[in-house]
Amino acid sequence: MMHFKRHIFLTSLIGVSIVGLRWFCVAAPPKKNPHPAPTAGKVSYYHQIRPILMTKCLPCHSTANHAGMLDVTSYTALLKGGAHGPAFVKGQPAKSLIVGYLHGKPMLMPKGGPPLPKEQIALIEKWIAQGAVDDTPKPHGKPSQQKVSHR
Ligand code: HEC
User: Fold this and answer.
1) For residue 85, is it within any domain?
2) Residue 104 lies in domain
């Protein structure tokens, strides 16, 4: 009789712990993915904007050769901006220096033209409108933070 009771006790104990464990797994907050897949509609600075600037503006706006005091090679440099201040205003494409210049106001960039394709200008405007988020990967990310999500 004693033996039987103990058996039930143990079974239910295991049962409870399994349920508890599963609850824990489900309820555990999702680990921050260090490499989020590009979400549809959300413009990525690092994957979409930076490559445009690096191809079209770098000859004149690099760290070494910063025309108008502007360096387009990093988010930080863009935010710092050039002779006329920050290249963009978060959330406000219409107030962003870079957008004006891309439309030829007060001067067309890339200097000497041709202007960027409409889609690229629109993409830059969209990125700024979405808050000009910096998604540059951190160069000194601790390996311990890069947990592999188990799916
Ligand atoms: C052929 C060289 C050249 C290229 C390519 C070029 N620029 Fe420029 N840019 C200049 C020069 C020179 C100035 C300074 C103009 C002045 O104020 O007299 C300037 C100024 C600017 C300024 C104003 C900075 C400030 O604060 O005064 C912005 C913004 C800018 N460029 C953005 C861009 C962007 C974005 C691209 C690429 C799409 C680009 N430029 C490509 C030569 C260039």
Assistant:
1) yes
2) 45-129
Kindly state if the Cβ of 68 falls inside 6 Å of ligand 1: yes
Query: What digits encode the pLDDT tens for the residues 7-51?
Result: 666 566 555 555 554 555 455 555 555 555 445 589 999 999 999
- For 14, the 3-state DSSP assignment is helix
Q: How many domains does the chain have?
A: 1
| Ligand 1 lined by 109 (C-beta under 6 Å) | yes
**Ligand 1 probe mutation, 50, 53, 61, most atoms within 8 A of CB:** 61
| Residue 116 Cβ contacting ligand 1 at under 6 Å | yes
DSSP per residue, 115-141: PPPHHHHHHHHHHHHTT----PPPTT-
103 in any annotated domain: yes
Tell me, yes or no, whether 98 lies in a domain: yes
Q: What is the pTM of this model?
A: 0.73
Of ligand 1's listed atoms, the one at least distance from the Cα of 82 is 26
Evaluate whether residue 146 is within a structural domain.
Answer: no
Counting Cα atoms < 13 Å in the Cβ hemisphere of 34 gives 13
pLDDT in tens, 69-89: 999 999 999 999 999 999 999
